[in-house]
Design brief:
With about 90 residues, this protein is of the alpha+beta class. Helices cover about 45% and strands about 15% of the residues. The protein contains four helices and four strands, in the order ααααββββ. The strands form two sheets. The protein has a two-stranded antiparallel ribbon with strand order 1-2. A two-stranded antiparallel ribbon has the order 3-4. Helix 2 runs parallel beside helix 3 (about 30-45). The longest helix is centred in the middle third of the chain and has 15 residues, at about 55-65. The protein is elongated and about 50 Å long.
C-alpha cells in the first residue's frame, strides 16, 4: 500500500485518472487534498481498476460461447430472429 504522503506528491490529473480507472467519481468541486484522500481510501480498501472496454468485450464473448456451447461442439456465430413469437435459428 502506498503512503498518504506519497499520494500528495501526485499531480491533480493523475489523481483524477486513478479514481476514474476505478469507477470512482471525480466530478464536483474537489480540491487536491480531497482527491488525495479519495485516492488513499481507494488504495487502502484495495479498489481494483475497472476492466477496459476490450476486456469487457472479451468477457462477454466468453460468456456468449458458454451460453451457446452444446454437447457435440460449439455453434459458431449463432443468431436468433424472432418473428410473430416464432424463433428462427440462423447459423453462419
Amino acid at each position: 500500500m502506498t503512503d498518504f504522503n506519497e499520494f500528495r506528491l501526485w499531480k491533480k490529473d493523475r489523481l483524477h485518472e486513478y479514481l476514474w480507472e476505478r469507477g470512482l467519481l471525480t466530478t464536483g468541486n474537489k480540491n487536491e487534498l480531497d482527491l488525495v484522500t479519495l485516492v488513499f481510501g481507494a488504495s487502502f480498501f484495495s479498489i481494483e481498476q475497472k476492466a477496459s472496454a476490450k476486456d469487457a468485450n472479451t468477457e462477454k464473448a466468453q460468456q456468449y460461447q458458454k451460453l451457446f456451447s452444446i454437447r457435440m461442439g460449439y455453434i459458431s456465430h449463432t443468431a436468433v430472429l424472432l418473428t410473430n413469437s416464432t424463433a428462427l435459428w440462423v447459423y453462419a
